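Pilot study result, target chain (311 residues):
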Amino acid sequence: MTTDPAPTSDPTAPGRRIDTLPTLTPTQSTQVLALLTEAAHTDGQQAVSEQGRLQLRGGEREGIRHLLLSVGDELIGYAQLEDTDPIEAPAAELVVHPAHRGHGHGRALGTALLAASGKRLRVWAHGGHSAARHLAQVLGLTLFRELRQMRRPLADLDLAEPTLPDGVRIRTFVPGQDDAAWLAVNAAAFAHHPEQGSLTQRDLDDRKAEPWFDPAGFFLAFRGDELIGFHWTKTHAQERLGEVYVVGVAPGNQGGGLGKALTATGLRHLAAAGLPTAMLYVDADNKAAVSVYERLGFTTYETDLMYRTES
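Predicted structure:
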């Protein structure tokens, strides 16, 4: 069980304190989500990932710590530290309320994250804004990962009916029935991926409970009774944006055109729903995947950057 360390105060910023907590109360979760919403309105994208936002509620989670930065009684900064990878350094995301930037609060949160992680730290900068790059430099962090968001219009989508490998059929996900099989294939397909490959039943349940979840857009590929691939799509209703949420093919089944067929199946579904645009995320150094998506008409929309300590 993680214990609550004493809050830290900063003598250079009167009234500033940082509380490090293993879990948030419902009130604290609501305050953090409001802070994230305000920041997103200014920045144009969320400062904390979907996984991080899901981890704001639902009680304590192993390896997760929340850092709340307050001045007086007002919450003006938040950071989340995730120490669940047995190999990689702990990963973090942080945000400061737009009205309170430029006063050293981001640096204070970054310094607290370095201390909490034993100076082994990875930090996401969503959108790669100049202020985030400067903070990373101040904290002594170096760039080591680029995650591209790519987009393409769907109005002119002209994809033929997907051609499946021999003996393969596609149906949609059945909650409860397909959970275990999907988790196993997802873990195998993304064994190299620090975030996607580590999803648990709790993580899947979190997503199934979200308003956007729709099994009609979650496609599974079977050979006989064996699940060998999937394409999970997502709809961002407010933005009128469809997402290639995740495409995975089980090891031993790559190279036969299944991934392309699954991608096309999901894109046709999103287009049929009347969505004007599709998006996806892909690591910039995954040249093969970037090339596939570029051939499908996707272009880079923005880039998220991850920085880390040298040690």
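One observation from the pilot: Confidence is low (pLDDT under 50) at residues 1-6. A full batch analysis is planned for the follow-on phase.
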